[in-house]
Amino acid sequence: MIDLVHIATLKANRLRPTTVRLAVLSVMSGYEEGTHFTIEKIVDDLASSGVRKSVGSVYRTLKEFEDSGIVIRHLFDSIGTVYESNTGTDHDHTVCVVCGVIKEFHKTEFDSLRNEVVSESKGRLIKHTQILYVVCENCL
Ligand SMILES: [Zn+2]
Ligand SMILES: [Zn+2]
């Protein structure tokens, strides 16, 4: 099925609506908001929907999505690279070092401190990432 919303998303980002791009967007749109997914998960979910794509081709697609701001990429210790849809909502992450569960949080106090540091540096903030490695309540 051709999804006009996904075609529009790609066009807005100057990407041609190729089968692999549309298939990846379609799989991603089935995820709950705040899902952090690996390349392998996308490959598996594509396969379950009858679309066979290699890890390499999904990697390239996600790289294009990252460059366009459709997804955000994270690198977490012991988990590796995960992606999430870019909903435009600023947040940071906690990662459980035992079970690998990833949770999101947003503390305005962190934002204020960050802005203070950037302003003191007289530079401009390009990217920030705050990852708190924890042992989650289920693993304690
Ligand atoms: Zn845990
Ligand atoms: Zn997140």
Short description:
The protein is α+β, with helices and mostly antiparallel strands and 140 residues long.
What does this structure look like?
With 140 residues, this protein is α+β, with helices and mostly antiparallel strands. The chain has five helices and five strands, in the order ααααββββαβ. The chain has helices spanning 4-12, 19-29, 39-48, 55-68, 108-121, and strands spanning 71-76, 80-85, 92-96, 102-105, 131-134. The strands form two sheets. A three-stranded mixed beta sheet has the order 4-3-5, with no helix packed on it. Strands 1-2 form a two-stranded antiparallel ribbon. The mean pLDDT is 94. It binds zinc ion (ZN) (2 copies). Residues 36, 84, 91, 93, 104 line the site of one zinc ion. One zinc ion (ZN) binds at residues 96, 98-99, 101, 136, 138-139.
